[in-house]
Give the backbone structure.
Amino acid sequence: MQTPLQQLVHRLDAAVAAPQEGLPDAVTAALGEAVAAGAWLLPEQQRASHDHYARHVIYADPEDRYTIVSIAWGSGQQSPIHGHHTWCGVAVYRGTVVETFYETAGNNAPPRALRSTVRWPGTLSFDADLTGVHRIANTTQDVAVSIHVYGVGGARIATDVNRVLG
């Protein structure tokens, strides 16, 4: 029997090998199954930093097609306003986060907030390459953890994911 992480990797391998129009549904279905499997992330993969949210690589595809990252959000921590250079699937694993969506006007104007959505455990989302601008924040007193799958290899996870806008 496979562990939840092994099953997630198996499902993601199939998702990235299939026609790209099915990628959003396949990635979110794989993430949904993974978070529904219960508590399986290791304690160190859920550890928040005192200074800022903490990223933990939990799997890097050996063919560089995707990387799975857990992000631990301490109380009051948030990402910068950003978009992605690559596709990204997200599942809330534990706790609650708020995702705020922004629009950009170009010409160096600051991004403008459009709406915010509360993301509970099990909530799933997917952004295609170069679409959407958002910020994720933990507005609660407890640590929140989300699982992100990015369409880049592990060596590029720190440099080729986010387009920081604010």
Summary: The chain has two helices and ten strands. The radius of gyration is 15 Å.
